[in-house]
Amino acid sequence: MTDASDTAARRPGEQALTALGLGAPALDPADTSPHSFPGGGRWRTEIPSCEGPEALAVILKESSRLDVPIHRISQGSGVWMLTDAEITEMVEATDERDIELCLFTGPRGTWDIGGSTRTDSRGGGLRARGHDAVAGCVEDAVRATELGVKCLLVADEGVLWTLHRARTAGIIPADTTLKVSALIGPVNPAAYAVFENLGADSLNVPSDLTLDHLTEIRRVSAAPMDMYIEAPDDLGGYVRMYEVAELIRRGAPLYLKFGLSKAPGIYPYGHHLRELTLTTARERVRRGRLALDLLARHGADGDMAPLGSRLPGPLRRFETPS
């Protein structure tokens, strides 16, 4: 996949199925996303669920061994689950390799005292409940950015807008990127555009969105999209490796997130979960290698964004209050 209009990459099983009279219809060039990352490239990579310096060291070692390029590493437990020394160690290790580090902000509904998230309706989800929860997220954001973290993960629309206003006001660095969690990810183009305008620089979308859904989103927004190529079980456990090339064609600019199904949850992380966290971190990198090998076999591994690139390019925003 050397440019946005290229559809020459081999599709899975294409030659064999064509020989059997079962060839698929030709791809529609109108479905191809016209967007890319600033500085070139249509896809980046992300290793999620990196819960501390020890897990980070495992990921970096394994990515070097398996030759898995990494643009971003993200954490899910939260800024408050790390000491200043641990955050600093992670910042220094990722800065040394020009990898973006993303930490989750503040109190979230699933760990709060409210019971609605435990009902069948899952009311409220991970959103920040009340003023104090928003304040906790802002506290985390200020602390993390003062320690050198350049990307923050958020799970609440109000927190997103507040942190966007904070960076425009100089309270946190202007080049801080804000990433929307998959647990509140938009599922339609109108919602996607709203998140972009609220300040999102990168948006997780649920991994069960169809290819047509991605095309619909790309008709209204160029904001980078994050998608689990393999989703954790609590997000559905979807495995979409054979669709990677088509996900890029439809969804670019796209972060390929290498999650892991059939694995116990590790949030919030503590040393009682150490062995599980380290072994699953290693396996996430291996899953990344498998996905990249698929891309290569299908002739669709070109047009990766340069390593070290992290900014999203110009995006649309709501006007902030003066």
Q: What does this protein structure show overall?
A:
The protein has nine helices and eight strands. The chain has helices spanning 14-19, 53-66, 84-96, 130-146, 157-168, 189-198, 211-218, 244-251, 274-297, and strands at residues 43-47, 72-74, 100-104, 151-154, 177-180, 202-204, 225-230, 254-258. Strand 1, helix 2 (53-66) and strand 2 (72-74) form a beta-alpha-beta unit. Helix 2 (53-66) runs parallel beside helix 9 (274-297) and helix 7 (211-218) packs parallel to helix 8 (244-251). The protein is globular, with a radius of gyration of 19 Å.
Radius of gyration: 19 Å
Reported for the largest beta sheet, the result is: 8 strands, parallel, barrel
Helices and strands, in order, run as HEHEHEHEHEHEHEHEH
The tally of helices reads 9
Low-pLDDT runs of 5+ residues are: 1-7
Portion in helices:
25-40%
Question: Mean pLDDT score, rounded?
Answer: 91
In terms of structural class, how would the helical and strand content be classed? alpha/beta
Strand content: 5-15%
First-last Cα distance = 44 Å
General form: globular
Strand line-up across the major sheet: 1-2-3-4-5-6-7-8
Number of strand elements? 8
Which helices and strands occur, and which strands form pairs?
Layout: H1 14-19, E1 43-47, H2 53-66, E2 72-74, H3 84-96, E3 100-104, H4 130-146, E4 151-154, H5 157-168, E5 177-180, H6 189-198, E6 202-204, H7 211-218, E7 225-230, H8 244-251, E8 254-258, H9 274-297
Parallel strand pairs: 1-2, 1-8, 2-3, 3-4, 4-5, 5-6, 6-7, 7-8
Helix pairs in contact: 2-9, 4-5, 6-7, 7-8
